[in-house]
Amino acid sequence: MATQMQLARQGKITEAMAAVAKAEGMAPEALREKVAAGTVAICANVNHTSLRPFGFGEGLSTKVNANIGTSSAFPDLEPELAKLEAAIAAGAHAVMDLSTGDNIDVSRRSIIERSTIAVGTVPIYQATVEAIKSKGSIMEMTADDMLHVIEKQAADGADFMTLHCGITMESIGRLRREGRVMDIVSRGGSFLTGWMLHNGKENPLYERYDDLLDICLRHDATISLGDGLRPGCLADATDRGQLQELLILGELVDRAWAKGVQVLVEGPGHVPYDQIEANVKLQKRLCKGAPFYVLGPLVTDVAPGYDHITAAIGGTLAAAAGADFLCYVTPAEHLALPTIDDVREGVMASRIAAHAADIVKGVPGAKEWDLSMAKARKALDWEGQISLALDPEKARRYRQERNAGNAEACSMCGDYCAMKIVSEHLGKPGGSC
User: Fold this and answer.
1) End-to-end CA distance of the chain
2) Cβ neighbours of residue 371 under 8 Å, at least 6 residues apart?
């Protein structure tokens, strides 16, 4: 089974490439060239039959991911399936199943079966849970255990898998020598670091990287190279540990592309606003234009309950600087498992950031969308404004609930609507603006 990248290199335009090109307003041949080069990834596992494919990368609209999944505290699957539906309805392009509760296989398979958008996973989570249940400790987990879970998730249809292959003994040593305020905040990164230090062995995902690539080749699963040493607070941003891992990830991108495996590269994290552009450009340089998938970035540490906003601020700048894929952050980040409302708010905040960046990038249709809204506002065309809104449901609710008896203007301005006043007088004899 040839991958999207391998077929692109053979000069073939697949159904997925044609669909993505049409959605993006791009010539199919231009998209094929980007897939062949690796600067665009189409995350489309051959086993995910319900998928409507999206492209992630250079020249395409900025995409948004929503995280869902069970936990040990909330192991029920049904709420997570409801969150999946909410994420899709809100316009997410991908979801990640981060389940660590009971019946992880059932959770993943149910999410993939019902999802029309790309599904990502983090195999080390399941490998860790299974090791604790069967062997009593994560430290007893073997390299084969990890590879078994990766194979199983790819076979089930995971479109992309976060694999923390860039954490090595060398990068951990650099992190320990320099010191950090928050050490390692990546859950997968912490699992692997603990395992490596306890067993005195190199990261199996790094040592057996070629085996991982072979699994991805069999299913056309995309590797999402995880940033296990991402900063968890502003004070740790852009330090030597983070950059050491990024150097390794750049080398792993080369090895994946050499085999025809598609790659995403994950990035920070908590980053001061003035460091975000440099982080993006450095990643793009070191990873040769591979699609960049960022969490946030969050531009301050002090806004729990509002971190969807801190992430949207950072996400706008990151995407405008060249990041291709934004992982949402919900209002519940750092506090609790998100609710359905949190999921929707997180997706919408990230979509706002993505669209604002797409205007700057010159993505086809982005500026035109805003111009259409401006014209509808000028005409006091409320139905037009609602239909053009990023969240029509919320826009309609506000309009209906807060404008009783005032169909022409809005209750903010009432009889003193600027659009109405100017429209009435601008066209009269002697009128001027």
Assistant:
1) 65
2) none
Q: Please report which residue ranges of 200-239 form alpha helices under DSSP H.
A: 204-207, 209-219
Q: Which residue has the tokens 């085999």?
A: 259
Instruction: Please state, in angstroms and rounded to a whole number, the distance separating the CA atoms of residues 104 and 325.
Output: 26
Of 422, 431, 417, 57, the residue nearest 262 (C-alpha): 57
Q: CA 77, 78, 84, 86 torsion: positive or negative?
A: negative
Cα–Cα distance for residue pair 25/364, rounded to 1 Å: 7
d(CA 297, CA 301): 11
| Helix or strand (DSSP H, E) at 391 | none
Between β-strands 325-327 and 263-267, what pairing exists: parallel, antiparallel or unpaired?
unpaired
Instruction: Give one word for 221, left, alpha or beta, with left for phi > 0 and alpha for psi -120 to 50.
Output: beta
Query: Which tens digit of pLDDT belongs to each residue from 114-140?
Result: 999 999 999 999 999 999 999 999 999
Tell me the whole-structure pTM to 2 decimals. Answer: 0.94
pLDDT of residue 406: 58
SS3 content of the chain, % helix, strand, coil (to 5): 55, 10, 35
Residue 36, burial from CB neighbour count under 10 angstroms (0-12, 13-18, 19+): buried
Task: Give DSSP secondary structure letters for 120-182.
Answer: EE-HHHHHHHHHHHHHSSGGG--HHHHHHHHHHHHHHT-SEEEE-TT--HHHHHHHHHH--SS
Q: pLDDT tens digit string along 135-191? A: 999 999 999 999 999 999 999 999 999 999 999 999 898 888 888 999 999 999 999
Position 432 scores a pLDDT of: 36
Q: What is the mean pLDDT of residues 214-218?
A: 97
Q: Which residue has the tokens 């998928």?
A: 51
| Sequence-ordered list of residues with C-beta below 8 angstroms from that of 224, at least 6 positions apart, any chain | 120, 160, 161, 162, 163, 263, 264, 265, 266, 293
pLDDT digits (tens, 9 = 90+) for 397-408: 998 888 765 567
User: Residue 410 has what pLDDT?
Assistant: 74
Structure token pair of residue 55: 């492209």
